[in-house]
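We give this protein:

***
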Amino acid sequence: MQRPLYGPLQWGVEIAGAIILLLMLSCVALRWGDLPEKIPTHYNFSGQADAWGPKSALLYLPLTAVMVWILLSVISFFPSLWNYPVRVTSANVAGLYRCSLNLLLILKLELLVFFAYITWAVVEGENLQVYFTALALAVIFVSVLYQIWKMWRLGKIL
């Protein structure tokens, strides 16, 4: 089976992710000259900066976001190599591929949003919101569980 085709929802998520990535890169580029020489490089669980480094360390956030975006995009071309929570059959393969593609796209978008928020906080010299870490983990956890649940249902029905 080939890689599942993108529908309007999938293209919308990809375009939103690309826009977020461009905004993050633009934010860093436009504000580079205004940044102090020392910026936060780590935040604790409550959102307070607890480590500092040179402003060049800020480049790691958008570069990591770009690498994650590329890696998850490449991985999406090989759905037959992924592990699924149910047995893949000819009856459920298309649905499983679609669910797994949706999971990758959603995770990619969520990670880009999280990286963009952290980048914005560093550029603006703000602490992260107290609930950010817990919220980010919860969002990712729920996204993964929802798609696994959908795959499990496909395995039981078909």
